[in-house]
């Protein structure tokens, strides 16, 4: 046989490369068939038998017994067939055992190349199969090298890539450092499986909690949402299926030991653990902690809320660069607008004043309209008469008259604005002083306070 001790080779490759022995055996068979056809012809019907116990390989060339041979690589005459089987007849298929040495040096080299190629393919497939199940999990590796900002990490059987956008800001590594990361994706490509890692993905934070908090790993405490500004701040919403287990306390740990382990892994990233609630208003208030919320105005149709906080808590609720409110939006799934009580009171007053420009709207009606989402008479202009009638308990005719009046108010305001733009310069009380001693064409303008120093010369 052109491959010495094939059983030993298959066993060794299977063990070292983690490739199923059956795949290698099939690869060997395909390689022998390919080599035989190169030697005999493309129509040759070749069968390869491999004994898994002994490692012996037998190759059979099947030919059909015919009266007249047209294709010598797949047919033979009855006379030739009788030499192999005295009982053969026309139409029979004879399996002729072959001596693999007949393939020659070129055929053997071709078989070797096919085996190498197939083994590489099998190795790539094995890597993909081994790691596709680890997608969405945390994995450990060693920094091997750097490639244009990306970090190439050795995982033992394979290499993974940590791209620049998946790296934590201000985080640096050197060759040989151990690293933990989240398996973001496992891609099956022509060059082999590409394992993509991340340390910035919100799910990396979730998986770290599963590692550090037994209650999370066991499913007693659930993580309902997570959001991050990598390396800076994160929020995690948690709930518990056991009334005796405080989900926030379980995640924080005794003296904060559990959450501190995660903070250290994330290089000091501040983590807010908040109590999830089925009451979305309560959940939003928890998500904006440590700010104290005065009131919440909910717009369910647009899934948005206006959150009013005490004036001294406004900056805390918004957070540095808007981080606190932005993260709260992510974990709640609601659009949040944070306003101070002073600003809200001013908006309410302006809204009431605007609504009360309508002759039929008094203070109580303005309050009803404002609570219904009509913050000025302009909103009334776009309203449906039926809605206004329902809110104020009036007839649809009166509601239509109110809408028409809002249109007249809008036109009046536009007319006043146009008049102010067209107001002549003389109405601005500007006096012109002419200096007889000035050069030709020089004049000096001054307002009501009188001429300036230059005009008095």
Automatic annotation (TrEMBL):
<dbReference type="InterPro" id="IPR030842">
    <property type="entry name" value="TF_NusA_bacterial"/>
</dbReference>
<comment type="subunit">
    <text>Monomer. Binds directly to the core enzyme of the DNA-dependent RNA polymerase and to nascent RNA.</text>
</comment>
<dbReference type="GO" id="GO:0005829">
    <property type="term" value="C:cytosol"/>
</dbReference>
<keyword id="KW-0806">Transcription termination</keyword>
<dbReference type="InterPro" id="IPR010995">
    <property type="entry name" value="DNA_repair_Rad51/TF_NusA_a-hlx"/>
</dbReference>
<feature type="domain" description="S1 motif">
    <location>
        <begin position="136"/>
        <end position="200"/>
    </location>
</feature>
<dbReference type="InterPro" id="IPR025249">
    <property type="entry name" value="TF_NusA_KH_1st"/>
</dbReference>
<keyword id="KW-0804">Transcription</keyword>
<dbReference type="InterPro" id="IPR009019">
    <property type="entry name" value="KH_sf_prok-type"/>
</dbReference>
<comment type="function">
    <text>Participates in both transcription termination and antitermination.</text>
</comment>
<keyword id="KW-0889">Transcription antitermination</keyword>
<dbReference type="InterPro" id="IPR058582">
    <property type="entry name" value="KH_NusA_2nd"/>
</dbReference>
<dbReference type="GO" id="GO:0003700">
    <property type="term" value="F:DNA-binding transcription factor activity"/>
</dbReference>
<dbReference type="InterPro" id="IPR004087">
    <property type="entry name" value="KH_dom"/>
</dbReference>
<dbReference type="InterPro" id="IPR010213">
    <property type="entry name" value="TF_NusA"/>
</dbReference>
<dbReference type="Pfam" id="PF26594">
    <property type="entry name" value="KH_NusA_2nd"/>
</dbReference>
<dbReference type="Pfam" id="PF08529">
    <property type="entry name" value="NusA_N"/>
</dbReference>
<dbReference type="InterPro" id="IPR036555">
    <property type="entry name" value="NusA_N_sf"/>
</dbReference>
<dbReference type="InterPro" id="IPR013735">
    <property type="entry name" value="TF_NusA_N"/>
</dbReference>
<keyword id="KW-0963">Cytoplasm</keyword>
<dbReference type="GO" id="GO:0006353">
    <property type="term" value="P:DNA-templated transcription termination"/>
</dbReference>
<dbReference type="InterPro" id="IPR003029">
    <property type="entry name" value="S1_domain"/>
</dbReference>
<dbReference type="GO" id="GO:0003723">
    <property type="term" value="F:RNA binding"/>
</dbReference>
<dbReference type="InterPro" id="IPR012340">
    <property type="entry name" value="NA-bd_OB-fold"/>
</dbReference>
<dbReference type="GO" id="GO:0000166">
    <property type="term" value="F:nucleotide binding"/>
</dbReference>
<dbReference type="Pfam" id="PF14520">
    <property type="entry name" value="HHH_5"/>
</dbReference>
<keyword id="KW-0694">RNA-binding</keyword>
<dbReference type="GO" id="GO:0031564">
    <property type="term" value="P:transcription antitermination"/>
</dbReference>
<feature type="compositionally biased region" description="Acidic residues">
    <location>
        <begin position="433"/>
        <end position="457"/>
    </location>
</feature>
<feature type="region of interest" description="Disordered">
    <location>
        <begin position="421"/>
        <end position="457"/>
    </location>
</feature>
<comment type="similarity">
    <text>Belongs to the NusA family.</text>
</comment>
<dbReference type="Pfam" id="PF13184">
    <property type="entry name" value="KH_NusA_1st"/>
</dbReference>
<dbReference type="Pfam" id="PF00575">
    <property type="entry name" value="S1"/>
</dbReference>
<keyword id="KW-0805">Transcription regulation</keyword>
<protein>
    <recommendedName>
        <fullName>Transcription termination/antitermination protein NusA</fullName>
    </recommendedName>
</protein>
<dbReference type="InterPro" id="IPR015946">
    <property type="entry name" value="KH_dom-like_a/b"/>
</dbReference>
